Amino acid sequence: MKYQAKPLPPIDLPELRQVGKPLRRVDALSKAVGATVYAGDFLLPNMLHAKVFRSSEPSARIKRLDVSKAKGLPGVVCVLTAEDLPNAKLTTDIPGQTGQKQRAGSDAPVLAIDVVRFVGEPIALVAAETLDLAERALELIEIEYELSPGVFDPKGAMQPDAPVVHEPDNIVARWKIRKGDLAAGMAAADLIVDNTFRMPFVEHAYLEPEAGVAWVDEQGVINIRVCTQVVEHFRSVARAVGVPHNKIRVRGTMVGGGFGGKEDITVEIFLALLAKHTRRPVRLAYTREESFIAQSKRHPFIITHRTGVKKNGRITAAEIKMIADSGAYPYLSPYVLLYATIMAPGPYRVDNLHVDSVAVATNQSFTSAFRGFGGPQACIAYEQQMDEIAKALNIDPLEARRINYLKTGDCNATGQVIESATWLEETASRALEALGEKTLDSGPVKVGWGLASYFQSYGRITWLHDTSRAWVGIELDGTVVVRCGAPDLGAGQVNSLCQIVTEILGVPLKDVTIYSADSAATPLAGTSTATRQLYMSGNAVLQAANAVREVLLERAQKHFEEGMDHLDIADGKVFVKRNPEEALPLSQLAAMCAAEGLSLSNLGLFKAPFTEGIDPKTGQGRVFPDFTFGAQAVEVAVDTETGEVAVLKSVACHDVGRAINPAAVEGQIAGGSSQGLGYAIMEEFALKEGRILMPSLSEYLVPTSVDFPPTQVIILESGSGVGPFGAKGIGEPALTPAPAAAANAVADAIGVRVRDLPLTPERVLAALDRAQLAAEACV
Amino acid sequence: MRPKVVTLDVNRKRHHVVLAPNVTLLQALRELGCTDVKSGCEKGDCGACAVLLDGKAVNSCLVLAWQADGSEIITNAGLGTVDDPHPLQEAFADSGAVQCGYCTPGMIIAAKTLLDRNPHPTEEEIREAISGNLCRCTGYGQIVQAVQIAAERMAAAGPVTVTGQGG
């Protein structure tokens, strides 16, 4: 089948000078020469080294805990257990944002009190003169457990006689959507398609394990230098440590990869406690094994779709059930589940819809944010279901989608009207077209194509009342300073902010310095999560830069005796548009403004749309600022003798609204695709009875440079997003369609579907065997 | 065994340090302030700690500092600086090959050894050469491009004494 790109509607995007150019990112060269200093790189005078003593049991009562020998080891300065920390609780489902609402009953103890609920749960902290001594102290901690029955699968955890992880039961969160008339919709269907899909735990595996240092300064402020996606956790840290909010300062570093795994608190509270107790600087850096055992994973999901369709593929009704494994503590599970619930039917118009979802506690690694935040899991199910529908009706997969695609002005599952461009067919047809000619089968090696369309929100849930602030100022030499609390995870967050400012203030990128990610010294900009920084902080810097520009132009107007509309700023000069020779360097203009007491800086505050929540009975209401749409197409070759899956081609096409830096956008899409293909084909964070079977990067394999071909990236720009210059978000959406596209390609290649990810050789062979047995049974 | 004095020639600067036998080269280099040598797994899985040991790329977490006694070590920071970057470093910065940057120093070391022995590598050869270095951000495509760009630029510039070579 040959596919042709659907023509794009005419879009008139204004030509810009800096935005839209693939400029070298402001952080790139320093990182390339190894000069950038990361959280684990800091040493302080008189510094102690910390280690965390963790549970070896998934479910147990602590009968005896004796740290006296550890305390007695010369060189050990401090050992803390729960006894030393009255009321030290970590509110686990609050992402740390300004004005956040709080959900009751989901706190985790900072250090285990009497009970441990997963392997890796922190029990005690040690600070010693050397790392070696701290490690030896861990070995001297004596602990006796009384093992209790655990629960290791979410379905089992919902049974009435299941061991309870947290009273009163194992239900962590539930959501439901009720829309239209399900029974009538099903009755109107020509065919009902029913499938269940499963996805595993997945590890973030950022290259930089969690690390930080803390010290108490001369004001008694506990300073924490840490790699985090959320400097605003300073409030939770203050609560846990028992000090006022203004006595904790989180100074975020350049982050060596986050992907959601550094969205929750990692080492901050431990560092703050030890610094507070010892009054000495403390360093804590996790090993890779500790990073695996201590931090969150992607939620495993079991998703069942029952879809009613007409013969032409039109969906008449959908009933979707989701079960997510939340692990031992809730963390962000309620929100991840909400995202999955809202995305459950995919980017399709489904007027008669029921979604019922539940997150369940088990005695396993806790699950929380991971790039896509439930969106990829939903996509893995809805896009495989869409291919199953196409197959059952014997229609082309793109056609089955096309007839159902959401259009601008349609409502999503929660009744929210989609206001921006929904370039679903535009992106899908381009991704398929770019696959070119299908590679031929070769003996036992069968080739298949897979498509996945998706939509994914960007920006936080609107009832969280999200805000971001940014300060922009021009110095007297014409250079620019930006202050914005946004942490940079490596995705180019701060570069985008700088590039936006250069567009407005007409200075080269090298003339902008940005201070970021400091909870005390930079205006709070919220979390680097939810694909929100470009949207939120991008708009905040845009607002601040425009205010500064206005001051400059107003003053320039007097100087040139020209209306403001006739003036522009570029290359460090203000000039008259019809005669660019008539120009004034920004340094001179800034000096004039300063001499007259005009403000050369501005603090911008951007607010997302605020709503008050959805109807709890129907799940109807606005939840998100906007959505990104796109598609991925993948060609795979499956060796039907060995079960091995090889990706031959991959094309991702996304409407990013406006690419602030196209090279950075390409990097997001290519990198997200790689993570998504890894999710589909090779990654599974396996546990057995709560014990991790893949404790390091030797066992848990992530894609290397030889595993997948590069994903071809096609960037479309509708200009219709709510971010600066019409940008949408791409950080998370980049991953979302990749796993589903790969799964569909494998099913196309072998003619039978492997319903559980990852698509390991064993599962592929088992699916082929089942298909053969079924075929023989029919004969 | 008791600690002994080990001589490490790091980025053309000689150090004499007293080290226990179980100290890895990674630990020793970081103690000496080479924070560009990144610790990612401490068991040779990720390549973030790669350095040149007598001109050969090694994962410094798998080498004991005693084994490197008397050796010449070049880390990524020894190849160039912000003011005078190595062509590989420049190409990585130019072509989107750097995202979080944590894998970058090791990645550049792997690429450097490739270009030293093969100045005109194919895409496949580049992919093979960096296959021991994990990157979780980029999907590797822009890294491969960066190595190709660096190779082209270095070839166009003719034979030059690159900082950090020999010594």
Structure, explained:
The complex is a heterodimer of chains A (779) and B (167). Chain A is an alpha+beta fold and 779 residues long. Among the domains of chain A are: 1-36 and 413-458 and 624-779, 2-Layer Sandwich (Aldehyde Oxidoreductase, domain 4), CATH 3.30.365.10; 467-607, Aldehyde oxidase/xanthine dehydrogenase, molybdopterin binding domain (Aldehyde Oxidoreductase, domain 4), CATH 3.30.365. Chain A has 18 helices and 30 strands. Chain A has a 7-stranded mixed beta sheet with strand order 3-7-1-14-11-12-13, with helices on both faces. Chain A has a 5-stranded mixed beta sheet with strand order 9-17-16-15-10. In chain A, strands 18-26-27-30 form a 4-stranded mixed beta sheet, sandwiched between helices. The model of chain A is unreliable at 95-100 (pLDDT under 50). With 167 residues, chain B is an alpha+beta fold. Chain B contains 6 helices and 5 strands. Chain B has 2 domains: 4-78, Ubiquitin-like (UB roll) (Roll); 80-157, Orthogonal Bundle (DNA polymerase, domain 1). A 5-stranded mixed beta sheet of chain B has the order 2-1-5-3-4, sandwiched between helices. The chains are: A alpha+beta (779), B alpha+beta (167). Chains A and B meet through helix 1 and helix 16 of A and helix 2, helix 3, helix 4, helix 5 and helix 6 of B.
